[in-house]
């Protein structure tokens, strides 16, 4: 399995500390354990910012970064080793492991944080934290600050500035390093395999969940712990529900099925959508819509390169889709006017993509100073145009109703343009039909 190397976490901490103001401190908590019901917990998923800076996989931990501190810039508070808990739950790194395996300069038990952290904050002018995103942690932070304030008469110096860490950290996360791209390529490869497997298994009479099971099988077999988001397996009219997740309907002969699914590795997501005919053969209407979405996606790829701005790819998809819908008789009027009046939104109501990384809808600004962000090498994004013709749309001929198509790939901006990470899944009508036909022959 390909992972982010330990050296990369250390490089990130140094890069963040280099951008922090002198005499400051950054404090970040691990994700809390979420209870599912009574004694059952949700599968633990580390907080993306915390993971980005530490690679430390446990809950009940706090990262403290203090640039320039003589006795160590990186302190990790974490759980102590505990034979009883380790027998029931899982092994713990403990303080020794935090230093030995995760590069902390020093580590303390999380149960001692109230005694130790105020002393680390004291004398620093500025505190960086993810203010507002974790009210309980914000409250703790203020308690630690108040401990220092209460000792002001003894000469203690509380910090006076509180700064949102997001601005620095999320801008760093937007630019993917070679190691990050490598992990994202691997997540994309396994996700592509999963889509192929689902395509091969597709048959009328199965259910949406039958195909979801094929995805999950391929993810787990690839060593991946979990999908990056709830898989969408949407057949027939369900393909027109953008974030459909019930995944329990019958796969009917003559219908399309839209699958939007991807796995994550070291918290790095892949996000792939493919749409195909349940029975392996596109109808003329399905093919017409499919090829229009595909053409829109191709047009978008051509607009992803350094110095092009974020919205150019979206604008390209809007133009191709609007012109195509006019040609098919689904929209009437002049293309420019239909774009200006946003008439296409009845069929294409979302944007062409989003940043992709440790969060499937990743952090990073889309506009800077009011202008669309200019693309740079290392930025990762999805390209996912779609057309959804509502089953209830009385404005269009019946033969079009209930067709929903999205095609989604993941790309990284390169010097020349972009690298498509998810090219491993067939995409043209001919390729999809050939793959599905071959799977049928094999099954006979
Ligand atoms: N999977 C959600 C999205 O494509 O944005
Ligand atoms: Mn997406
Ligand atoms: Mn998606």
From TrEMBL:
<feature type="domain" description="Aminopeptidase P N-terminal">
    <location>
        <begin position="4"/>
        <end position="138"/>
    </location>
</feature>
<comment type="similarity">
    <text>Belongs to the peptidase M24B family.</text>
</comment>
<protein>
    <recommendedName>
        <fullName>Xaa-Pro aminopeptidase</fullName>
        <ecNumber>3.4.11.9</ecNumber>
    </recommendedName>
</protein>
<dbReference type="InterPro" id="IPR036005">
    <property type="entry name" value="Creatinase/aminopeptidase-like"/>
</dbReference>
<dbReference type="InterPro" id="IPR000994">
    <property type="entry name" value="Pept_M24"/>
</dbReference>
<dbReference type="Pfam" id="PF00557">
    <property type="entry name" value="Peptidase_M24"/>
</dbReference>
<dbReference type="GO" id="GO:0070006">
    <property type="term" value="F:metalloaminopeptidase activity"/>
</dbReference>
<dbReference type="InterPro" id="IPR007865">
    <property type="entry name" value="Aminopep_P_N"/>
</dbReference>
<dbReference type="Pfam" id="PF05195">
    <property type="entry name" value="AMP_N"/>
</dbReference>
<dbReference type="GO" id="GO:0006508">
    <property type="term" value="P:proteolysis"/>
</dbReference>
<keyword id="KW-0645">Protease</keyword>
<keyword id="KW-0464">Manganese</keyword>
<keyword id="KW-0031">Aminopeptidase</keyword>
<keyword id="KW-0479">Metal-binding</keyword>
<dbReference type="InterPro" id="IPR029149">
    <property type="entry name" value="Creatin/AminoP/Spt16_N"/>
</dbReference>
<dbReference type="GO" id="GO:0030145">
    <property type="term" value="F:manganese ion binding"/>
</dbReference>
<keyword id="KW-0378">Hydrolase</keyword>
<dbReference type="GO" id="GO:0005829">
    <property type="term" value="C:cytosol"/>
</dbReference>
<dbReference type="InterPro" id="IPR052433">
    <property type="entry name" value="X-Pro_dipept-like"/>
</dbReference>
<keyword id="KW-0482">Metalloprotease</keyword>
